[in-house]
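Quick one, tokens below. Sequence please?
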């Protein structure tokens, strides 16, 4: 009886403690003011446990690892010196982006931009001509690979780095829009959305997109609202919206591909891995219960052997394979070795292993900030397409030079090109005078003239100029930060840090002569002695056309961000916020 009494008293004490703890959660530990109470000002603290896992993503628990070469450097590039780094936890797609996913993207673009800006749909089209080889018959892949349903679960190829980034931005907005619809705050209204009035995460946060409301919003505890009964839209502080989808960094991709979480005990890595699986061989040893001796990934086994012998096709894929083919690695990621190589976020430099930080290493930072009005409010979103004027000028100049050399221009073609060049000069002059709106108006005139022209070369020019659209209607205005606003900063001052320590003035032979500083690469003489510049992006992993060497996660190659290949695809990543591994059952949910 005495024991039961003691037990009852103990339970009452625990229950009372739980009540007090719950009450304490609703008060600030700094001021003791109650949260979510309109009477004292409406300080808000919303219910939140941890980050929701976005569609298609797998949580990659971060940690330290040896990044770089783990096998012989067959090409003697000496651009991948092993070094220990730390990668934070992040999310990564379990497979490459498929043709079906890309067709969904094109469908949305047609719905929203098709009537006003058809050039944006053309800009997003993968280059199906990447399948052509001078001594191969690949026309069936040119015609059918992207759109035929037989290939819809195959990885999309022919996508350049810029297109991949556009897709990541689009995916972020569609997922966050879905969350607001799921939470019954918005209605589906895709058919009603237009080029300058459609959902993006940033314009929603800025109050520049309204949509069709299904509910008035979240309860607003602001004391200035009548009786605290007002409503507001979702904010970042609510934790409801997900961070941006993006390409993984080189370090993240390599770390995820190795999958050392399945090859370690405590902090001991039991065996070094050469591939995304155990051992130093490419055939299955049967330890996972699958077919003994089968190839673990989609790559070329030897000269002329892309899939094996009829009746026993080893990797069962002459080109790419469906994205869920072959066993996943220990993180649950498919095809991190083979099938297609993949774009990552980094700019390529051969000496990156010596320059990058040990923590979350990355080269390619270009810092931006929102464009503000004079009163400090966020500037209204774009209502037209924004062009890279210098890029368009370079394209038109090259096109004119090559067409003239080949004697393909008619008088009408020459007249169109002359008119475009004149308008480009005007746009460039306006841009130097910081009259950005007037400069972009000139670019809009160029596109209107091209679209309305009956010249034979007009379609080529339209598609080429569209490739240099840097932002489109309906998106928030952003700009690079400038030196003046960072005068007192010590961690950075310039916006563009791509060539920091490797290509900037300090790292060149002109480091003592500031007068010779230019906007061009100072160390890399692109097109003459090197193909490396600030547009060179790292690609990782092997492909269906590569030998096994390139399936080693540490190998690295590079390609210009505007080029694409039949062997190159991508997958998306997302930053993990908060706890690296998740709070799980130990987490305390805020009330």
């Amino acid at each position: 009886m005495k024991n039961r009494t003691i037990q009852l008293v103990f339970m009452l004490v625990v229950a009372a403690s739980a009540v007090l703890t719950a009450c304490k959660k609703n008060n600030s530990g700094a001021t003791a003011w109650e949260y979510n109470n309109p009477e004292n000002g409406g300080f808000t603290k919303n219910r939140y446990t941890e980050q929701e896992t976005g569609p298609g993503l797998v949580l990659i628990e971060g940690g330290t690892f040896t990044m770089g070469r783990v096998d012989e450097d067959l090409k003697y590039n000496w651009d991948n010196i092993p070094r220990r780094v730390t990668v934070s936890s992040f999310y990564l797609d379990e497979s490459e982006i498929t043709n079906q996913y890309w067709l969904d993207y094109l469908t949305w673009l047609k719905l929203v931009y098709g009537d006003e800006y058809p050039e944006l749909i053309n800009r997003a089209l993968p280059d199906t001509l990447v399948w052509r080889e001078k001594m191969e018959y690949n026309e069936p892949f040119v015609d059918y690979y992207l759109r035929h349903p037989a290939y819809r679960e195959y990885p999309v190829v022919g996508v350049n780095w810029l297109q991949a980034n556009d897709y990541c931005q689009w995916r972020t907005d569609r997922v966050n829009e879905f969350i607001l619809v799921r939470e019954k705050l918005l209605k589906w209204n895709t058919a009603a959305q237009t080029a300058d009035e459609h959902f993006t995460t940033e314009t929603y946060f800025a109050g520049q997109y309204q949509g069709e409301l299904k509910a008035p919003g979240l309860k607003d505890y602001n004391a200035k609202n009548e009786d605290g009964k007002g409503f507001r839209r979702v904010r970042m502080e609510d934790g409801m919206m997900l961070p941006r989808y993006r390409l993984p960094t080189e370090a993240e991709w390599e770390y995820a591909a190795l999958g050392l979480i399945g090859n370690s005990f405590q902090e001991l890595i039991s065996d070094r891995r050469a591939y995304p699986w155990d051992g130093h061989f490419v055939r299955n040893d049967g330890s996972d219960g699958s077919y003994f001796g089968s190839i673990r990934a989609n790559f070329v086994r030897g000269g002329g052997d892309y899939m094996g012998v009829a009746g026993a096709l080893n990797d069962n894929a002459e080109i790419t394979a469906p994205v869920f083919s072959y066993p996943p690695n220990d993180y649950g990621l498919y095809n991190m070795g083979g099938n297609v190589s993949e774009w990552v976020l980094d700019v390529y430099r051969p000496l990156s292993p010596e320059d990058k930080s040990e923590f979350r290493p990355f080269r390619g930072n270009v810092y931006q900030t929102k464009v503000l009005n004079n009163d400090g409010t966020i500037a209204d979103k774009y209502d037209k397409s924004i062009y890279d004027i210098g890029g368009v000028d370079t394209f038109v100049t090259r096109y004119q030079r090559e067409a003239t050399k080949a004697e393909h221009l008619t008088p009408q073609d020459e007249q169109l090109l002359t008119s475009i060049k004149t308008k480009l000069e005007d746009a460039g002059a306006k841009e130097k005078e910081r009259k950005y709106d007037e400069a972009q108006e000139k670019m809009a005139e160029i596109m209107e003239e091209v679209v309305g022209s009956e010249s034979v070369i007009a379609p080529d020019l339209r598609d080429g100029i569209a490739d240099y659209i840097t932002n489109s209607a309906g998106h928030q205005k952003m700009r690079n930060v400038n030196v003046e606003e960072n005068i007192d900063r010590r961690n950075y001052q310039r916006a563009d840090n791509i060539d920091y320590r490797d290509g900037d003035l300090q790292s060149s032979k002109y480091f003592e002569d500031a007068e010779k500083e230019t906007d061009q690469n100072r160390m890399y003489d692109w097109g003459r002695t090197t193909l490396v510049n600030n547009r060179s992006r790292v690609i990782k992993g092997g492909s269906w056309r590569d030998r096994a060497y390139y399936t080693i996660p540490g190998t690295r190659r590079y390609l210009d961000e505007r080029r694409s290949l039949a062997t190159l695809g991508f997958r998306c990543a997302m930053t993990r916020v908060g706890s690296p591994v998740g709070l799980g059952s130990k987490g305390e949910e805020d009330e």
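The radius of gyration is 28 Å. Residues 68 and 80 are 5 Å apart (CA to CA).
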